[in-house]
Amino acid sequence: MDRGEKIQLKRVFGYCWGTSFLLINIIGAGIFVSPKGVLAYSCMNVGVSLCVWAGCAILAMTSTLCSAEISISFPCSGAQYYFLKRYFGSTVAFLNLWTSLFLGSGVVAGQALLLAEYSIQPFFPSCSVPKLPKKCLALAMLWIVGILTSRGVKEVTWLQIASSVLKVSILSFISLTGVVFLIRGKKENVERFQNAFDAELPDISHLIQAIFQGYFAYSGGACFTLIAGELKKPRTTIPKCIFTALPLVTVVYLLVNISYLTVLTPREILSSDAVAITWADRAFPSLAWIMPFAISTSLFSNLLISIFKSSRPIYLASQEGQLPLLFNTLNSHSSPFTAVLLLVTLGSLAIILTSLIDLINYIFFTGSLWSILLMIGILRRRYQEPNLSIPYKVFLPFPLATIVIDVGLVVIPLVKSPNVHYVYVLLLVLSGLLFYIPLIHFKIRLAWFEKMTCYLQLLFNICLPDVSEE
């Protein structure tokens, strides 16, 4: 391995990349395929549904700013680990890292399955996509993206920026089309907005459900806690990225929903499994075939970024002595190759063994539990260290609002569809203690694994990182 250049994770990403990174994390497939959830729980009241989308943007901003405080206080990759270790101890921090192994692999598996489904769907226009080809394509896509990620940040950077430009361009096209249709003033296009609040108003339980549906579409703002160590000047870059990306996403989401409602009736939206495809078929029938590929492109960029960011906590855990030393290695491209390999391998197992719906349910259930604990940590810091000087402090009601939302994301699935699998998820989190107690607390060493680490270092041409100058 050429040692002319230092092998380490470097601070190479600035404001433009950070904004693009946040846009990709927030804008997933949801806005293309399932905005009907908000409309359904709003009792098809157009005015209420648009208000819900705007309100969810405010809630998303509060939770993102809470995560920003953690990222700025601990400006390193895996900032949430250091935060949990300081305020809850090393055991809780390890369980968070242990969970992130499965949470990250579940996220990439779900995204790979969605990518495969929308890539194959045009070839099965009159039926659902068969499971076998969908899973085979998902595995192929996952390993291709894993290889690209292990090639270093340069490949990730240009692919990410190109994908984010394409994604925003598609949404802008949908938005501008709706605006043009409204300006034309045809009765069938404008009548739904003339009396937007005339439909039945939803009761409080339905309104809460609508808020959770919309909040899901804005999720992803906490991503800077995973890659803060690779951002230039994170104390100023992170807030600037947030206040650029989230208002842009809010405006685009509102305009896209207005465009959907301009072209389609509320009942047509509710009966559609993929609203963007139905919209394209109605607005531009000759171009309808493009939309599934547009959604696939969007999901490809999400998959790329998910593997990139989810490999960082694995690398960090090894650096802190809480995973084997093998995962604290970098290849010649300064990429944590073994962490990416582990993530892709676990993601492949998840694709083979589970369904997409199960993955989504369990991922957001577990993620919400840890989000609650992080918000409690922020409140605990305010109480225990009120005079602590930190670069950025979030407005105190924001963590409280985030806790309320996350508690709802935990409680509602348990009440609506109680399932023993949620108990298994909690047992999976606690199973990390079976590794933590002997291997970390009592520091038991496995000689055979240390020998295997040496062989794998030679096989994959990887080495321990150089000491950082920070």
Automatic annotation (TrEMBL):
InterPro entries: AA/rel_permease1 (IPR002293), AminoAcid_Transporter (IPR050598). It comes from Gorilla gorilla gorilla (Western lowland gorilla). It is a multi-pass membrane protein. Keywords: Amino-acid transport, Cell membrane, Disulfide bond, Membrane, Transmembrane, Transmembrane helix, Transport. Its main location: membrane. PANTHER family: AMINO ACID TRANSPORTER, SOLUTE CARRIER FAMILY 7 MEMBER 13. It comes from the Eukaryota. This is Solute carrier family 7 member 13. GO terms for molecular function: L-amino acid transmembrane transporter activity; protein heterodimerization activity. It is found in: Apical cell membrane.
